């Protein structure tokens, strides 16, 4: 039990995908491993990473609580999965502190004036949704917060649709659980979750976000660089 608690608190934790909002990178029912280590070294989410975070301000207020099966209850008991009572979400980070994120009509989605090439967006979806609920927007991300969006753009109630909450649709840093790094279950869908190349394009860092402390950066850089260079793709086609 002590080892499980240590793993849950400092290292990794499993998370079950509750919806289709991150298709096709993640399917409903997939289980991912979430890295909780980097935040302890002063790191913060980066653009393109898939993160798990606590409900910032009632995003899941109208969502039913799914009754866990016996396996999920056991994993929750030993600390390897969150309790079914915890309301967590999973989305992709699009904007970090200092970024200007915008989308008009059906897209493209732009960060600091640079259009993103988004092959991870669900087939048939457009990068943005020309609706009145928040599908088109222009926002600047404040310090300590992040703008997140689902890959299944027309089926994701993400930052776009919560701009009237207390965080203006942003996810506070202290609500972030960690970064999803691996699809661990089912075995046929095993894959890593690397940062898409579009987030490395020149000029995207026109507005730099908050910089972690020197000590924190020294501890986080090796792990972050290793993960960002992972290019493995799904082996199940």
Structure summarized in a few sentences:
Strands 1, 2, 3, 4, 9, 10, 11 and 12 form an 8-stranded antiparallel β-sheet that branches. A 4-stranded antiparallel β-sheet has the order 7-6-5-8, with no helix packed on it. The longest helix is centred in the C-terminal third of the chain and has 15 residues.
What are the main properties of this structure?
237 residues, alpha+beta, eight-stranded antiparallel β-sheet, 3 helices, 12 strands, disordered N terminus, disordered C terminus, signal peptidase activity, hydrolase, membrane, transmembrane
Which helices and strands, and how do they pair?
Blueprint: H1 2-10, E1 12-16, E2 31-35, E3 50-54, H2 70-77, E4 88-95, E5 100-103, E6 110-111, E7 114-115, E8 137-140, E9 145-149, E10 171-172, E11 176-185, E12 191-192, H3 214-228
Antiparallel strand pairs: 1-2, 2-11, 3-4, 3-11, 4-9, 5-6, 5-8, 6-7, 9-10, 11-12
Mean pLDDT rating: 79
Q: Give the biggest sheet.
A: 8 strands, antiparallel
Helical region count?
A: 3
Oligomerization state: single chain
User: Percent range for helical residues?
Assistant: 10-25%
Query: Could you state the order of secondary-structure elements as H and E?
Result: HEEEHEEEEEEEEEH
């Amino acid at each position: 039990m002590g080892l499980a608690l240590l793993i849950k608190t400092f290292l990794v934790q499993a998370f079950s995908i509750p919806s289709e909002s991150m298709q096709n990178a993640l399917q409903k029912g997939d289980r991912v491993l979430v890295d909780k280590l980097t935040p302890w070294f002063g790191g913060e989410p980066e653009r393109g990473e898939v993160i798990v975070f606590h409900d910032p301000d009632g995003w899941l207020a109208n969502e039913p609580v799914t009754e866990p099966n016996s396996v999920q209850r056991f994993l929750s008991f030993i600390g390897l999965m969150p309790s079914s009572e915890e309301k967590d979400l999973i989305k992709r980070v699009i904007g970090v502190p200092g970024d200007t994120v915008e989308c008009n009509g059906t897209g493209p989605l732009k960060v600091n004036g640079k259009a993103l090439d988004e092959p991870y967006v669900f087939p048939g979806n457009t990068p943005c949704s020309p609706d009145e609920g928040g599908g088109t927007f222009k926002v600047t991300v404040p310090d300590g917060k992040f703008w997140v969006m689902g890959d299944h753009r027309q089926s994701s109630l993400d930052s776009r649709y919560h701009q009237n909450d207390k965080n203006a649709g942003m996810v506070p840093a202290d609500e972030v659980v960690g970064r999803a790094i691996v699809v661990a279950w089912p075995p046929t869908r095993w894959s890593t979750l690397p940062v898409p190349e579009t987030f490395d394009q020149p000029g995207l860092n026109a507005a730099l976000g908050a910089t972690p402390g020197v000590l924190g950066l020294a501890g986080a850089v090796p792990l972050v660089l290793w993960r960002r260079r992972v290019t493995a793709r799904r082996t199940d086609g």
